Amino acid sequence: xxxxxxxxxxxxxxxxxxxxxxxxxxxxxxxxxxxxxxxxxxxxxxxxxxxxxxxxxxxxxxxxxxxxxxxxxxxxxxxxxxxxxxxxxxxxxxxxxxxxxxxxxxxxxxxxxxxxxxxxx
Length: 121
Fold this sequence. Notes:
Number of strands: 4
Structural class: alpha+beta
Order of helices and strands: HEHEEEH
Number of domains: 1
CATH topology: Double Stranded RNA Binding Domain
Distance between the termini: 57 Å
Radius of gyration: 19 Å
Largest sheet: 4 strands, mixed
Oligomer: single chain
Strand content: 15-25%
CATH class: Alpha Beta
Shape: elongated
CATH superfamily: Ribosome hibernation promotion factor-like
Helix content: 25-40%
């Protein structure tokens, strides 16, 4: 599977995008792909939409639904679409990595040792 294949397969372009935008969007979001490597493609659902495209009130919304995790949502009000895509990609990566780090045990945490039999008395 190529690095961006999960994006190509699982990204739904919503309001404000057309099928001709697919390549541009996948290219802009490509750095997200390694952060999705822990999930099978069928466990990933990505949705991207834009309101007021090209206007000063433009809003890009990027949603990620990853099996076993709460939904992640990143938004941008950048007027330049490529900048908005970069901003939502970076925010999505931050949210996913923050959530992963909260779930994984920290390396510097010592495991709790079980109580010795004499301590139980």
